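pls read this stuff:
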Amino acid sequence: MRTAPDELAGELRDLLVEITGRAELSELAATTPLLRGGVGLDSLAGTLLLRRVERRYGVDVAAEDLNLDALETLGTLAAFIAERI
């Protein structure tokens, strides 16, 4: 059974809160950019997020998406993962 992108987005919000220590990210809209502007993840937080995603879901985003387009928004990341689990 596949996990719905909406459910994954909720789990990813929790991961972002853990990684950044920013509780307000628990209310993050799926369309909010993760990098520049939006959440503004720096390279360390982005790397930590990708490592957590790989451990939790078995999806290596960086290896499968060389341009990291999946990291555009919370929603694109959730959809990317949902297609692979």
